[in-house]
Amino acid sequence: TSASSHVGHPASAFAFPLQNSSFVTSASSRRQNCDGVGERWCTTQSISYHKTCLLVSSSDNEHASDPAWNLKVGIVGAGPSGLLLAHRLLQSKLPLAKIDIYESRSDPRDLTKTSVGRAYALGLGVRGRSAIRSVDEQLWSAIKKRGYECERFRLHFNSKFNVKLRDREEGVEPSVLIYQTDLCGALLDELDGRSGGGGGGANVFEVHFNSNIARVDLASSMISVKSDDIEDDTTNNCERGPYDLIVGCDGANSIVRNALQTYSPPSTFSYTQRKLLPGCFKVARAEKMPPLMDPESVGLLLPESKSLGITAFVEPTVEGGAGVLFAGKLSNNTEEGTTSSSADGDDGEEVDNLGSILFPPPDSKEGSRPPLSDLETIKKLITDQFPLLEGTPGMEDMVQQLLSQRTSVADSVKCNIYSSNSDSTATAICGDAAHATGGVSGQGCNSALVDSATLSDCLIQHYQSSNNSTDTVQSAKRAMLHQSVSSYSQKAVPEGHALYDLSFGNDGKTLPIFRNVKAILSNAVDALFGGKFGIGKKSLQALLASSSSPFVDIRREREKYYVEDFPSDEDFRGELEKLYDIE
Questions:
Q1: What does the alpha-carbon distance between residue 500 and residue 440 come to, in Å, rounded to a whole number?
Q2: Section 29-51 average pLDDT
Q3: Mind listing the pLDDT tens digit for each residue in 175-191?
Q4: What is the three-class DSSP state of 490?
Q5: What whole-number distance in Å separates Cα of residue 416 and Cα of residue 288?
Q6: Is the pTM of this model over 0.85?
Q7: Residues 528, 415: Cα–Cα separation, whole Å
Q8: What is the DSSP secondary-structure string of 111-124?
Q9: Is the pLDDT reported for residue 116 higher than 70?
Q10: Quick one: CA dihedral 233, 239, 244, 246, positive or negative?
Q11: Residue 507, by phi and psi: left (phi above 0), alpha (psi -120 to 50) or beta?
Q12: Nearest-angstrom CA–CA distance, 57 and 269
């Protein structure tokens, strides 16, 4: 993984003030009622959660006269896509009995719990903005306030020479750089604000933080939440449900995706997942932008020693801060302190030491805190390689953030279908659970948000009540929900596959020599000129960030760069119909 692949999509670390939050916490175990499972109770350690209630009036809901139509929805993952899906469902006027969101981590607004390592910064481009605005402009305004508008990008070859690769375009709305915690916090705060008006109705929406999912059962439509007080104990897990619809917004290591594989008929659902080794990264937050850098421009810094194999990606953030992503390679030498020879002579040991210090094996112990003298030494190693970081306010704290994190390795995921078949609970997967690209394209969050909007549109289109008798409502609901998730798959799978191709190119396959040389030269011209002076075209990264064209169209327009042709719409539809008999 290279930091240059994150243009317009930085990753960093930040925490923000706790606002409008309510926590239910307990230090001891207690008994909790599991909604939807009758009189069954479970013993589990108290789950700390943030609860948001929306009061749904029957006058706003055409289905509400018959509660049998009301939907129970379980969403696994309270990241941007899971929270946006909740917004869309609550706005949709679909008949809702309950929306439960389960998140393994703490509320991102709780400063006492938020982890530096999880607080990535994201670049919201036109796709992400459009998905958020599909709720309303007010939601986008609330999110935009917590980010920083930026479209400038510079490549720094060294401390004295740099090239401007992107600048703000007239008439083009810039990307918004926003920390993941800020984005999720804004979505949560807006849910709070929109539900605080009072009135009659039923509380339908709840987020359960610190809830680790043990199992998703698509036969019984239940979600099992782990009991934290007894390790590896399954007898005391809390069973929640049953749900009419289950949605996995739970990332590259998705439990919901694993359930799809388990409950799908043989030779139907399949996926591939791999670690993007040897690439690795860490993120950190600085109090202010480095004084030697343009405070309004994202910058990619190459090291002074080219053999180092580490790059620094620096972006301006809200309130004048800076986010820094260090990307490198895992060392072949896993023993602490091991170094190897280098072309830089006397500097070789220093170079190797910096790499091994910043990127120890991912399974190394987290949270090491060396003496202050060591911090100063490591700070000097970093600034020697990246002189433009010299004088950065809060540099010592930034070094400590880096040393306190585990080394992160991104995953790629590619699935052939994003929904369940009609024999099990209606289920869909969104975002990285369906199509992870490890940040290579800078479109992971944007495409996940689009997934949530697309799934919502499909539910609104296909879930329509009728005058069925009560005993046939359940079968009608099930059929409509499966039609909804199948329609979502039809729309989202081609986009996910196109994004995967745009991120990884030929994925190890090689073009014929002449076509390969031509492709390399063409990409270089696009990166340097970006269509200026009539030379070249927008670079792929800039195009993905600023264009609203479907990924499939961009992929097909770039057919000359690929060994294999991209399937047609008819090919995709035929394949999905063959898998699940979609009508």
A1: 9
A2: 33
A3: 999 999 999 999 999 99
A4: helix
A5: 44
A6: no
A7: 34
A8: TTT--GGG--EEEE
A9: no
A10: negative
A11: left
A12: 39
